[in-house]
Design a protein that fits this description.
single chain, L-amino peptidase D-ALA esterase/amidase, 9-stranded mixed sheet, 3-stranded antiparallel sheet, 6 helices
Length: 303
């Protein structure tokens, strides 16, 4: 395992944000892509294209953004950037960039709407880099919060985190924007790192409060206002079926570090990318993905 975030050759990440929200663009250089949607309230674009039984074998970009469904506009800016650079599916004299996206809900400013638009998506793609990628309250993590079940006053700041786990020359990197209803916990000790706080500053323990029925009505009021989104990527050579399985198993990492997770109030969605020629047993790669995802979630609140 390694806290230094590594990217497969050719993959770049860019962020753009304002004072309220942001977008993160992962340029894939024609990587094999997959997806797994587990939350009950997702907001997505082009996820069906990535499923194992579909014919398209690659994706040009993965976009993570705030803005709830309004933020889906950001992918149009990424498409413009890719089209200008002649990147995408070639169809006669046309090029069609294949851009998948997931959004989280960060419309937290009363009576105002701030969301990543087309221009912000273009800016994120244009500044994408493979070196010194920033994490914390940037990009899709800019307006993220954790533990809104007691209301915004009791929530902690979220963010976007990254982590890499290695086995020999194979690695899996997770980039996760955390805006969860549940608490973020240290997956090795169970200690709550971020979540809903009581007026005395102590953590509520959201899982406990839900399982004993204390916050049943508040939970119903939280529908669709959360969500954790992200992407795991590996330098191992995987086919589309394997990449989709990798995306599915990466959700185990969310379950290790977010409690509860995959609720009807979250739209949890994870993408997976394969870009490289390294080989390892798929079970090892999947274990790396789960561990990297858990660590990235925890890192998102430590920055």
């Amino acid at each position: 395992m390694n806290d230094t975030v590594l990217l497969p050759d050719g993959i770049k990440i860019g962020h753009a944000q304002d004072d309220y929200t942001g977008v993160t663009c992962i340029l894939t250089d024609y990587a094999v892509g997959g997806v797994s949607v587990r939350g009950g309230a997702p907001g997505t674009r082009e996820t069906d294209m990535l499923r194992a039984e579909k014919s398209q074998g690659f994706v040009n970009a993965v976009v993570l953004s705030g803005g709830s469904a309004y933020g889906l506009e950001a992918a149009c800016g990424v498409m413009d950037y890719l089209r200008e650079n002649n990147i995408g599916f070639k169809a006669g004299d046309k090029v069609v960039p294949l851009v998948a996206q997931a959004i989280l809900y960060d419309l937290n400013t009363p009576n105002e709407y701030h969301y990543p638009d087309k221009a912000m998506g273009y800016a994120a793609a244009k500044c994408a880099t493979a070196d010194n990628v920033a994490f914390g309250n940037v990009g899709a993590g800019k307006g993220a919060t954790i533990g809104k079940i007691l209301g915004a006053f009791g929530a902690c700041k979220g963010g976007i985190g990254g982590a890499t786990c290695k086995f020999g020359d194979v690695f899996v990197t997770a980039v996760i924007a955390v805006n969860a209803l549940g608490d973020v916990c240290d997956h090795t000790t169970g200690k709550i790192l971020a979540g809903a706080r009581l007026p005395n500053g102590q953590f509520l323990n959201t899982m406990q409060a839900l399982t004993n029925g204390t916050l049943e009505q508040m939970f119903k009021m939280q529908a669709g206002t959360n969500t954790t989104i992200g992407c795991v990527m590996t330098n191992a050579k995987l086919d589309k079926v394997q990449v989709n399985k990798l995306a599915a198993v990466a959700h185990d990492g969310l379950a290790m570090s977010i409690r509860p997770v995959h609720t009807d109030a979250d739209g949890d969605t994870l993408f997976a990318l394969s870009k490289g020629d390294k080989t390892a047993d798929l079970n090892i790669i999947m274990a790396l993905a789960a561990e990297a995802t858990a660590r990235a979630v925890e890192n998102s609140v430590k920055l």
